[in-house]
Structures are given as C-alpha cells and as structure tokens.
Design a protein that fits this description.
It comes from Winogradskyella marina. This protein has six helices and no strands. It is mainly α and 152 residues long. The radius of gyration is 33 Å and the shape is rod-shaped.
C-alpha cells in the first residue's frame, strides 16, 4: 500500500503543479487583458478630452448659451472667462445690450409692448446668427454694444 500511497501522492503533486501552472497562465492572461483595457480607457479619455476642448474652443456654445435667459448669459460669461474666444465675447456683449435695452424699455409704459416685440425679433436674429457661426451685430445698437462693453 505504501507504493499506492506514493503513486497517489505523486499524482496529487502533479495535479497541484498543473493547477499552479493553470492559475499562473490565467493570472498572466488577466493581467494582459487588464493592461489592454487600461490602455483603451486612457485612449478613450484622451479622445473625449480633445473633443471637448475642440467643442468649447470655437465659442459657439458660449454664444448660444448667452441667448438663453439672463442666467444663461451669466453661465456664458463664466464659460468664456476660462477659455476666452472672440465669437463668445461678441455674443455676450450683444445679449447684454439687448437685456439692458429690455429692462430700460420696460419702464416706459406706452413703448413697452412695441419695444419687447422689436427686442424679440432682434434676439431671434442674433440667435440665428450665432447658430450659423456668423458675427452679425443686431440691427438696433449692435455696433455700439461692441464698443460700450469692450471689457467683456
């Protein structure tokens, strides 16, 4: 029986060695796959970062956001301050002028309705120009807005 025990012991040692080799191969394969996944994730993150920089660098988003209420205008100023573009600054100044003109015209009772309609038309035309990527001053006081609000 002792011979059977030795054979059984040798068989168990062989099986244990095979299991160790299999576990080592599996570990190496997992390590390789993890490394490949990590490289793919880094590449995807770099691509996303570059795409985001490209989207925000043209200023078109800032210009469009500046048209969305007074809060949107404030958000556009914050966005433009970190990555200042001429296009974004142009529309921030245009919309500040339209906002101020709207506030001033709201105090004049008789002119109020007509002024708001004219301002709405100017705002829509400005938004269309921003969406089209063109820097067109509004028909009211667009050129003056650019001069008056140079600091923005």
């Amino acid at each position: 029986m002792s011979e059977d025990n030795k054979d059984l012991g040798n068989d168990l040692n062989d099986m244990l060695d095979d299991a160790k080799d299999g576990a080592k191969k599996a570990g190496d394969k997992i390590s390789q796959k993890t490394s490949e996944f990590s490289d793919d994730a880094k590449k995807a993150a770099d691509d996303f970062s570059n795409d985001a920089k490209e989207v925000f660098s043209d200023g078109k988003n800032v210009a469009i956001i500046a048209h969305i209420t007074f809060i949107g205008w404030i958000i556009a100023i914050v966005m433009n301050s970190s990555n200042k573009t001429e296009f974004g600054s142009f529309y921030i100044r245009q919309n500040l002028g339209l906002i101020l003109l709207g506030v001033v015209s709201s105090w004049i009772p008789i002119v109020n309705l007509v002024a708001w309609i004219v301002l709405l038309i100017a705002w829509i035309m400005s938004l269309i120009s921003a969406l089209g990527g063109e820097m067109k001053p509004t028909f009211l006081l667009g050129k003056q807005y650019q001069e008056w609000f140079k600091g923005l």
